[in-house]
């Protein structure tokens, strides 16, 4: 129903220059959000808010399809790009996703390196299975979302992103934001070409099967990891439960977002969408040669304060204007899935 986008800005390039430039390689500088698909909404809130100490900054619905599902957002105080994790809550209705090639196989979050012991103790206290290990020069802790999605905490020297201070996690240990994602793929050659020529990422280090790519300066929040697994089968692509659905990279300007779309199309990667209005941001989705779904995302100027005050972010269901008429029906439908409170 809502694939059509509302209130979309006109293409600013049509009035600015009258012509579209081809061959522009956009410099991504960091993440916007990472979206998972989960089964149990309350367990998802407990994981992100209760365990990880993130703020629930928005409670809304998935904007594709007529059947509503919760879409929950977590991040720092303002829900700033680069701190955002989001979840589609599918309950038992969708099939279980198949892990494999072409999927984001792990989400890594940045924490101060001296706080890793705090997190190991915290996981122990909460009964969360975890394991410490080293990769690409960083000390890390592996753990899992209750629906089986792999996560890592990566200890970093410096990360000046402001964390959420409203949880029981001490500010000195709080999660600063996304560190990186790991994309699992059975073939790497064309993916390397795509990341390099298509997205402007710079190849960095390799550690075993995992290679890193950098946006901008390559700090925490500016890294993408590729895990080469030549024997692994293809993973699922669609809306299925308990996988990472897609990863979004932050774009500041409408022109840059459209230039990037044109750039991919000029390379023959035409599996890329027009900007879609997702109420809090505009999204251009593009499929990578590995199969993983990426997104180039430009925030709405008001961000998550568009429809709620800063102090009450995430406190109640918010719907885009074009769905407000359906609110009673949508709430009734959501409650058949699972009440969140
Ligand atoms: Fe997204």
From TrEMBL:
Residues 30-156, 177-299 form the VOC domain. Gene3D superfamilies: 2,3-Dihydroxybiphenyl 1,2-Dioxygenase, domain 1. PROSITE patterns: VOC. InterPro entries: Extradiol_RC_dioxygenase (IPR052537), Glyas_Bleomycin-R_OHBP_Dase (IPR029068), VOC_core (IPR037523). It comes from the Bacteria. This is VOC domain-containing protein.
